[in-house]
Backbone:
């Protein structure tokens, strides 16, 4: 390396992630399961520890110093997230346990306004968390679910979507980036079409917010959900973004402390946003640590993270395509790695994904095998399960090389036995 | 990569039964039918049994379904081992298999082929793959038709 050569983003950040520097089965860990959950940098672990060591107290209640510190830090995290996704107001950010809870919140509070015959448009590629809550709404209200299928390139079929949508459509609930196909949905376009018909739009941004700049106002979506643990934050905290007027019009989801204004024995009035949707003591330390994660990601720059991941995507696909036994799902990236997320779900000839995952684990490589919570998509693709390698900005080309070598060895291992 | 470890898991017997299963299909007639699945990974097993007239002996076992090398070879090996066994013997073998996967017991000499699954016990996350078919057989033998659930799951 020459002195003038700039360090890659991964080289710059890897010291921040203690967990990456360990051996698994005698081999250096290669963590390629980031679509399931990301690793946490020291600043996030420190934020969690600092909170419990210095500031731990309940929020929005006490007058004492610790309570005031905890409240400031918790509300400060909300400000950070609002800025991170460019919400118009901090009141538009509601802390939830995760993205699933955020979707359930909307499905329960807003979904109850739906009536028999109202239509909800989803896609076949949705994660179960953006499917089951709407199945439950449909059962409760008589609303009808309609599904956009992938097209021949295994992308969202925009033409089919345009044919499905009508004045009966009340909601389009759609993922931004597919955790299986890696496809990046044109959400701004999908939203504009939905709004033309008066339908609301919820965007499941679990696989986009950690990896690229996301601007809710540019998207013009009505709701957006994300999970903290996939974006360098801790588990147990996620968030819901919702347009202010819309959130105001929705009844509360869960009842309890924190979400009230005035309580009598037989009735209560509710707190203003966002507290109306945050019943009970929230995950204070986790929310504060998520704020630290957002600071960390912002300091690196989401555009830089995305650009680096595109480089990784280009390299990953270039290498995967050297193994003829593989069937990779979703659209191909451009030579520059554009047009899809830095992940690849695939099947490998004779080798079942679970067997593959075990063999790779022996080489220190962590990948996911299974249906990735997209069982209907797998059924649609006529495959029971797939293996998936999913990357983040701390992964390197050298790690991709280790993964590819182990993958090739696994394919050869089975091929040698079957001849 | 530690190939020795892998050879312990993927022993030749396992790989042969995976590649060329002898007991794939459906028994004729079907006296018992039970589905099993592993919800965490999506593996499925469709087990059919043919019993004698009294319903006391297993005459044939067949399986269909999709899964990894461990799950499929375990089903094929089990089907071989069950042919001709009484229901009581079969239930004892199920218990013995489960004990073996916990490292507690082995099969006697005449059933030693089943012992190849011991290698799986060293990979705790894969034990469920091996036990799915045995779990399904237990349900098929114990539950009367009317109370048979659509699926049994080995999540417990």
Residues:
């Amino acid at each position: 390396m020459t002195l003038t050569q700039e360090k890659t983003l991964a080289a710059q950040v890897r010291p921040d992630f203690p967990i990456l520097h360990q051996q698994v089965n005698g081999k250096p860990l290669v963590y390629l399961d980031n679509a399931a959950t990301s690793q946490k940098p020291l600043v996030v672990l420190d934020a969690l520890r600092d909170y419990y060591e210095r500031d731990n107290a309940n929020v929005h209640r006490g007058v004492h110093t610790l309570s005031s510190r905890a409240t400031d830090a918790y509300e400060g995290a909300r400000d950070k997230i609002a800025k991170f996704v460019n919400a118009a107001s901090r009141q538009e950010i509601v802390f939830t346990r995760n993205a699933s809870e955020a979707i359930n919140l909307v499905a329960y509070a807003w979904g109850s306004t739906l009536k028999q015959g109202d239509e909800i448009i989803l896609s076949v590629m949705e994660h179960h968390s953006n499917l089951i809550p709407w199945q439950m709404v449909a059962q409760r209200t008589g609303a009808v679910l309609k599904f956009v299928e992938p097209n021949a390139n295994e992308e969202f079929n925009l033409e089919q979507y345009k044919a499905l949508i009508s004045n009966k459509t009340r909601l389009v609930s759609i993922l931004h980036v597919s955790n299986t196909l890696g496809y990046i949905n044109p959400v701004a376009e999908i939203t504009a079409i939905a709004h033309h018909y008066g339908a609301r739009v919820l965007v499941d941004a679990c696989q986009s917010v950690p990896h690229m700049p996301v601007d809710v106002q540019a998207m013009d979506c009505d709701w957006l959900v994300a999970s903290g643990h996939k974006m360098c934050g801790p588990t147990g905290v996620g968030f819901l973004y919702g347009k202010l007027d819309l959130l105001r019009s929705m009844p509360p989801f869960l009842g309890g402390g924190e979400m009230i204004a005035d309580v009598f024995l037989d009735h209560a009035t509710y707190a203003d946003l966002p507290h109306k949707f945050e019943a009970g003591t929230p995950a204070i330390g986790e929310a504060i640590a998520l704020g630290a994660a957002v600071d960390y990601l912002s300091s690196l720059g989401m555009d830089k993270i995305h650009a680096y991941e595109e480089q990784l995507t280009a390299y990953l696909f270039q290498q995967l395509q050297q193994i003829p036994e593989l069937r990779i799902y979703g659209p191909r990236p451009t030579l520059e790695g554009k047009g899809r997320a830095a992940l690849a779900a695939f099947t490998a000839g004779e080798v079942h994904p679970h067997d593959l995952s075990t063999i790779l684990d022996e080489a220190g490589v962590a990948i996911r095998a299974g249906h990735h919570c997209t069982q209907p998509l797998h059924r649609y693709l006529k495959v029971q399960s797939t293996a998936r390698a999913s990357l983040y900005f701390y992964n390197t080309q050298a790690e991709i090389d280790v993964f590819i070598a182990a993958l090739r060895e696994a394919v050869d291992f089975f091929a040698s036995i079957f001849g | 990569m530690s190939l020795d470890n892998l050879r312990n898991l993927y022993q030749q017997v396992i790989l042969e039964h995976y590649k060329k299963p002898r007991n794939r299909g459906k028994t004729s007639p079907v006296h018992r039918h039970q589905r099993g699945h592993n919800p965490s990974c999506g593996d499925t097993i469709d087990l059919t049994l043919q019993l004698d007239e009294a319903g006391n002996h297993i005459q044939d076992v067949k399986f269909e379904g999709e899964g990894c090398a461990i799950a499929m070879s375990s089903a094929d090996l089990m089907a071989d081992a069950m042919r001709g066994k009484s229901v009581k013997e079969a239930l004892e073998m199920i218990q013995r298999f489960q004990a073996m996967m916990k490292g507690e017991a082995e099969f006697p000499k005449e059933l030693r082929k089943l012992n190849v699954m011991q290698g799986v016990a060293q990979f705790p996350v894969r034990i469920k793959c091996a036990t799915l078919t045995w779990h399904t057989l237990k349900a098929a033998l114990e539950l009367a038709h009317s109370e048979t659930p659509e699926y049994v799951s080995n999540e417990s």
About this structure: Chain A has two domains: 3-31+301-418, 44-299.
